[in-house]
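Hi everyone, sorry if this is the wrong subforum. Our group has a chain we'd like a structural model of before ordering constructs, and none of us has done structure prediction before. Sequence below.
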Amino acid sequence: MCSKHTNKTSFPPGKRHPKYRPIGSERIGKDGHIFVKVDDRKWMPKHRHLWEQEHGPVPKNHVVIFANGNKRDFRLDNLILVSRAQLAVINKNKLIFDNPELTKTGVIISDLIMKTNERMKEDENHW
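Answer:
Right subforum, don't worry. Here is the predicted structure as C-alpha cells:
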C-alpha cells in the first residue's frame, strides 16, 4: 500500500531507480564517445568535460577533437579546440590522422583553405 506522500509510480524514500548512476559515472554513447555524468541530470562527452576543467567553457560554435583520432585517448595534449567551420573543412578534406602532429597541421591547412575561399569570394564581389 502507498503512503499518502507517494503515488504508485514513485520510489519509496531511500530507494533509487535501478538505472541510477552517481555523478562521475561514465557510459559509452552510440557514436563510441565516452560520456561522464556531471550533475543529477546531465551527461557530457568526457573529452569536452576534461577540456573545460583545464581551459574553461568551450566557446559557442566550437568543438573539442582528438588529435590522434582515438576517442579513448583523453590526454590533454591530445585534445584540440576547433571551430565548427574548421571541423567541416577538416572532415571534408580528411585532415584528421592517427598522428597528432599531422592533425594539428590539418587544422592549420583548414584555416588556409577557409581564408583562401574568403579571399576568392571577396574578389568575386569586388569585380
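For your construct planning: The mean pLDDT is 90. Residues 26-126 form one domain.
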